[in-house]
Amino acid sequence: MRYIQRQSAFARGLHWIHTIACMSLFVTGLMLFIPAVASAVGLGAMQGARTVHRVMAVIFIAAPLLAVVVNPKGFKHFLKNMFYKWDAGDKEFMAKFFPYLFTGAKQHMPEQKELKSGQALSDWMLFAFAIAISISGVFLWLSASGVAINGTLTLWMLVAHDVAFVLLGLMMFVHIYLGAGVFQPYRGSVRLMFGDGKVSESDALYHWGTWAKEELAKGDKVSVE
Amino acid sequence: MAETAILYDASKCTACKGCQIACKQWNQLPAPLTAEEYEFTKSYQGPLDLDPDTWLLMTFSEVSMDIGVEWNFMRHACFHCTDAACEMACPVGAITHKETGAVVIDQDKCIGCQYCVNNCPFSIPRAKVIGGTDYAKSFKCWQCFDRTSADKDPACVTACPTDALEYGDRAEMVAKAKARVDTLKEQGFDKAEIYGENEVGGMHTIIVAHRGLEAHGLIRDPKVPVATNLLDLAKPLSAVGVGVVVGALGFSFAMGSKYKRGEHSYDEKTDTWTIGEVE
């Protein structure tokens, strides 16, 4: 069977780092979000969680920034995939996606490019929430460290941090459900970021038909297993 | 135990600072003792503001008059609001209401995030890093809950030589304050007002401000910040959000339980695409 190398080792490495940072931030953030958790685990665990939260926040922000510097070509590719004008197929995909998701994926979906329009939409949202949570988090850290920041501004940064946390958390549920292939039609996609980055010809054609045909024709990323 | 309150009558206060000292003494709060430690403020008010070691501060509003300076005193400390913004913002449940209505910070739970500092509409809580650790903790008046729970008055009340401070059943303190305001008005203090009866859900410090709220440095009609209310809403709303998303994904998973798809293949030479049908 033929396979296409969809994700590079660099992209997978960055995704691994960000996954660990994200999950650690989510768990430690949850400890700070729900008072009952704090009461259950005690002061020592909470102070430990705050320290882990800050260390992981640095990784969360620094890793993608560093990736842009180390691999500008990859970043350019990422931007190209994220920002493009939707054609009729992209719009049709989004219009059909929710019926597809909730009725057993029986619908025939239009062919997609390297990034489905729904994926791009989800990535934009993740990107926006990640920026909001990062900026507000830096403000909160500075404020708690004694830097003189206007109290009202700090308060609104806390609101922004909480809102971004909740939205990002909800988006992560969907991201994991689809990305890790919990959703039956997406089975096997976990291999893309947590395996060797390859996708089978059949799955590639099903998910990203236009892109898959281009890659199969080019052949430089195709292997037979 | 019924709801209680401290009644502070500014018209009886001589600003002797006995309450401020008693607070420091009972709660074992350090104070600067040497000239090097203490910055001369050019005011009888010292220190100029509350700090982590000063939970009660007598303030002196000095208003220039034709015949000199008029002083308006105020006992500046936590008001122990019913709708306490600090309690709403605390992410770890370290700030709670006691049965008396006192709003108390549990130092064993405080993680020093200082959200209470930013949320309090009166800027009452103050934080400092605890010696020997890298972590801060927030501090403020706790209405001497150790004393009141043992049927004793708060330390500040016991020290007042002019009965400007009283402690007791909240309803009784409110009634006394109202009666006092009426008396003061009869005596010519037209602007005399009561503070704390209804503000921020009702406070557990009731104040008689004989020269009007603003003259004593009190905030008229204080509100819990909008942002604090949003923070309070975030938790139940996010629980609903999680329920909706998890439920929707569960439904999607259930609907796809019998999903099976045939193999897709592509012949690039003939540009022929074979589609495996969904069963």
Summarize the main sheet of chain A.
Answer: 3 strands, antiparallel
Q: Greatest contact pair? A: A-B, 49 and 54 residues
CA radius of gyration of chain A: 20 Å
The N- to C-terminal Cα distance of chain A equals 6 Å
Sheet having the most strands of chain B: 4 strands, mixed
CATH superfamily of chain A: Transmembrane di-heme cytochromes, Chain C
Number of helices of chain B: 7
- Helix/strand order of chain B: EHEEHEEHEEHHEHEEHEE
How far is the N terminus from the C terminus of chain B? 69 Å
Strand adjacency order, main sheet of chain B: 8-1-10-9
Rg measurement of chain B, Å: 28 Å
Offer a few descriptive terms.
heterodimer, A: 225 residues, mainly alpha, Fumarate Reductase Cytochrome B subunit, three-stranded antiparallel beta sheet, 4% strand, elongated, B: 279 residues, alpha+beta, four-stranded mixed beta sheet, two-stranded antiparallel sheet, 7 helices, 12 strands, 27% helix
What is the fold's blueprint, element by element?
The complex is a heterodimer of chains A (225) and B (279).
Chain A: E1 2-5, H1 9-33, H2 35-41, H3 43-70, H4 72-82, H5 88-102, H6 117-144, H7 151-179, H8 190-194, E2 198-200, H9 201-207, H10 209-218, E3 222-224
Antiparallel strand pairs in A: 1-2, 1-3
Helix pairs in contact in A: 1-2, 1-3, 3-4, 6-7, 9-10
Chain B: E1 4-9, H1 18-26, E2 57-65, E3 68-76, H2 85-89, E4 95-97, E5 103-105, H3 115-119, E6 126-129, E7 136-139, H4 145-148, H5 155-159, E8 165-169, H6 170-186, E9 193-195, E10 205-209, H7 226-255, E11 265-267, E12 272-274
Parallel strand pairs in B: 1-10
Antiparallel strand pairs in B: 1-8, 2-3, 4-5, 6-7, 9-10, 11-12
Describe the structure.
The complex is a heterodimer of chains A (225) and B (279). By secondary structure, chain A is mostly helical. Chain A has a single domain, classed as Transmembrane di-heme cytochromes, Chain C (Fumarate Reductase Cytochrome B subunit, Up-down Bundle). Chain A has helices spanning 9-33, 35-41, 43-70, 72-82, 88-102, 117-144, 151-179, 190-194, 201-207, 209-218; strands spanning 2-5, 198-200, 222-224. The longest helix of chain A has 29 residues, at 151-179. Chain A is elongated. The termini of chain A are close together. Chain B is α+β, with helices and mostly antiparallel strands and 279 residues long. Chain B contains 7 helices and 12 strands. Chain B has helices at 18-26, 85-89, 115-119, 145-148, 155-159, 170-186, 226-255; strands at 4-9, 57-65, 68-76, 95-97, 103-105, 126-129, 136-139, 165-169, 193-195, 205-209, 265-267, 272-274. Chain B has a 4-stranded mixed sheet. Chain B has a two-stranded antiparallel sheet with strand order 2-3. A two-stranded antiparallel sheet of chain B has the order 4-5. In chain B, strand 11 (265-267) and strand 12 form a beta hairpin. Chain B is elongated, with a radius of gyration of 28 Å. The N and C termini of chain B lie far apart (69 Å). At the A-B interface, helix 2, helix 3, helix 7, helix 9 and helix 10 of A face helix 3 and helix 7 of B.
